[in-house]
Design brief:
The protein has 193 residues and is of the alpha/beta class. The chain has six helices and nine strands.
């Protein structure tokens, strides 16, 4: 893992959670907050440099630095930008707070693949998964320019960067639900059963 020693994890927990009706990262899933599942898998990989992008002071209970968006109401791209600005690492694993099925296998494989690209973008069944990907600090000025222009769709914002796509769909250890996120009370209840 050539970049492991200079890698931070940025957890995005700054969304409005409009479909969940309450802050989704703090919703309980299998007896612990959704975000805690993400933190647990990061800890299992011995990634201790973790920061949480959130407007909500309740995330401070997890013991990691919490930062609000630097530019308000710019969606996940604004969260990634804020995380990169606050991070001290060159390489940054960006994860959504509501992905309780992330695995040690997936994240270590992703970290092992990290190279000189600006973005190592995961894909699943041909669809980009930008909220489980690795971003280099070199993306900061490019993302700032996109935010200033209000070009907020992440996959569009990646144009102009050196982006490498990777899929783990064919790996024997890949379950297929690692990228699943829980956005509504219904989704949460179905997965609890």
């Amino acid at each position: 893992m050539p970049y492991k020693n200079n890698l931070a994890a940025i957890i995005l927990a700054g969304g409005h959670s409009s479909r969940m009706g309450t802050d989704k990262g703090l919703m309980l899933f299998q007896d612990k907050p959704l975000v805690h599942h993400v933190i647990d898998v990061l800890r299992s990989l011995e990634i201790n440099d973790i920061l949480i992008i959130t407007q909500h002071g309740a995330y401070e209970q997890f013991g990691y630095p919490c930062y609000p968006d630097l530019i308000q109401d710019k969606g996940p791209l604004g969260g990634i930008y804020a995380g990169l600005v606050h991070s001290k690492a060159d390489k940054n694993l960006v994860l959504a707070c509501d992905m309780p099925f992330l695995t040690n296998n997936l994240l270590s494989a992703l970290i092992n693949e990290t190279g000189d690209e600006d973005v190592l973008l995961t894909q699943h069944l041909g669809r980009a998964e930008p909220l489980c990907s690795i971003y280099d600090a070199s993306c900061i000025p490019h993302f700032k320019m996109k935010l200033d222009k209000d070009e907020l769709k992440i996959t569009d914002a990646l144009k102009g960067l050196q982006c490498r796509e990777i899929s783990f769909d064919s790996e024997t250890w890949f379950n297929g639900n690692e990228f699943s996120n829980l956005n509504t009370p219904d989704e949460l209840n179905k997965q609890q059963q």
